[in-house]
Amino acid sequence: MSQNGNQLAIIKKDTVDVVASKVKEFQEKGELHFPANYSPENAMKSAWLILQSTVDRNKRPALDVCTRDSVANALLDMVVQGLNPSKKQCYFIVYGTQLVCMRSYFGTMSVTKRVSGAKEIDAAVIYEGDEVDYEMVNGRIKNLTHKQKFANINKENIIGAYCTITLDNDNVYTELMTIDELRQAWSKAQFWGKDQDVEKKGSTHEEFKQEMAKKSVINRACKKFLNSSDDSSLVMSRINRADEVKEEALLEEELQQNANKEIIDIEYDETPIQEQQAQTEPEIKATGTEGPLF
Q: 237: left (phi > 0), else alpha (psi -120 to 50), else beta?
């Protein structure tokens, strides 16, 4: 640990203690309500322990390189969304000098249930040979049925996946993605090569394709619900803020990396090659006794 006890105590006071005070203020004003099984204090303790071992891509401690404002805001994003890092509902990622709280898909499911009142969120993979039938009603998938034989289960034969979100009133929302749509979503990630068409051998998406497919379709389904929620709520404002900070931090990091690259800028001589040879030839003869011109 690069920070001594006094430094850590100061950082904790400027971040964790400030966030705890802010959360208490929100609760007293009635702007923030947590689920019965959520303890913001326990989540903050877990986050603080995790942050002390979090590093950036150059293995530098997050608490050394990140601004204290970004640390405090990442913690506030976590608490307001009701997430707990010890339950793998979120992760802390360093982008340049910014700390960002990233929801996992477990976290996204938890927030979606909280915001939309959904009772259940489930996902399944469709393999070649499965029987899938549904109706389209007003642009929505209805009455989806899926019959699967055990012998069909093979990660090499995945042709799609779907997610169902069951609401309080027993309405069911269904999101369906084909394997091409899943790969299109995966291709947006940094690990996906420029001309890559399928999962690389040995990659997480190749070895755990079923889980990755379910994760992607769950994220898409939940995102639609979150985006259609009331933006004025405190929870949604922190969700939107976290997404915006991530995009800005990524852009800033990319600009910084490009700025650090050495650019060799030379003047381009548009004189034709034949003219250049004619111009330089007499000079070479005149300096022939002084060695080669490098």
A: alpha
Other beta carbons within 10 Å of 46:
16
Positive or negative CA dihedral for 243, 248, 251, 256?
negative
Q: What is the pLDDT of residues 166-203, one digit of tens each?
A: 987 678 999 999 999 999 999 988 778 888 888 988 88
Instruction: At 143, list the tokens.
Output: 């009455």
Report the interhelical angle of 40-51 vs 68-80 (nearest 10°): 140
pTM: predicted TM-score of the whole model, two decimal places: 0.74
Question: What digits encode the pLDDT tens for the residues 101-114?
Answer: 998 989 999 999 88
Sign of the torsion angle spanned by Cα atoms 69, 70, 73, 79: negative
* Token representation of residue 288: 């022939």
Name beta bridge partners: 173: 165
Task: Give me the half-sphere count of Cα atoms (radius 13 Å) on the Cβ side of residue 182.
Answer: 27
Residue partners of 164: CB distance under 8 A and separation at least 6: 120, 121, 122, 123, 144, 172, 173, 174, 175
Question: Which residue spans within the chain are E strands per DSSP?
Answer: 90-95, 98-103, 120-127, 131-137, 140-147, 158-166, 172-178
CA distance 198 to 205: 9
